[in-house]
Amino acid sequence: MLPFFRKIRYKLAKDNQFFKYSRYAIGEIVLVVVGILIALYINNWNEERKERQEFDQALVEVEKELIANIKNSRIAINYLFQQDSLTKKILFDSVSYSDFEQSYNLRHLIEWDGDPALFFDNAFKKMLELDAKLNEEQDSIVSNLMRAYSVRDLISKNNEDRKNFTNRILQSYEKFSWFNNWRLIKVPPERIDYQLNDPKFKTDLITYSKFNLGDLRYVAERIDIDSRIAYHMIYDYLESQNIPHID
């Protein structure tokens, strides 16, 4: 057996076939490796292109959401300015009995526990679920969006504070004879007298002003400013990429 292999080795060495076959084999291996690398590159490129398209489409939806948040924040800010005007009139004794009698908003100023600063974030949450590789511009957009949507925590805290305050106010009203009729259109005179003359009412009104006209207005203004910055960044990006979106 050994002599047989010695003869083959001798022949290959003599004819220089060994090096020819080696070069051929190495070339084949290199071609296979290069082919695999090219296939992987194309596959990765397709995946990244798909991720970019999904991210861009997600940005289109976030842009719509930001527009809605900006509109709602402006509505909330205008409403809170109106509430602020009513509050100042009461605190500075610029209202009369008939003013309270005729104005529902004036009578129920500190009992209101609604949420005028409607804030949507579903599109943003869906965008965060994407596992896309971002370039520097896209990463900057996401960073600004994170800031714009970080106000969610402030909204939650403000809602909780205001609801706790409103519940406390309503509980304090239970001792008054007019409490059961306090939401009627024809208001009991005792209630109006309380709002006009009782110092505790003004003290509660100052607290209300902090929660509703101070903290909440700050939140609404934050939504407006940060959302506008993020919106303009998204708008410019989508325009530069020729991606159809709200114009």
Features:
9 helices; 247 residues; elongated; mainly alpha
Topology:
Elements: H1 2-15, H2 17-91, H3 97-102, H4 104-107, H5 122-129, H6 136-149, H7 151-173, H8 189-197, H9 199-240
Helix pairs in contact: 2-5, 2-9, 6-9, 7-9
Any overview of this molecule?
With 247 residues, the protein is mainly alpha-helical. The protein is built from 9 helices and no strands.
- Poorly predicted runs: 1-6
Task: Please provide the count of β strands.
Answer: 0
Biggest pleated sheet:
none
Order of helices and strands: HHHHHHHHH
Report how far apart the termini are.
83 Å
State mean pLDDT (0 to 100 scale): 80
Q: What is the CA-based Rg, rounded?
A: 35 Å
Strand content bin: under 5%
Q: Pairing-aware structural class of the strands and helices?
A: mainly alpha
**Helix fraction bin:** over 70%
User: Helix count, per DSSP?
Assistant: 9
Overall spatial form: elongated
Give a short overview.
The chain is an all-alpha fold and 247 residues long.
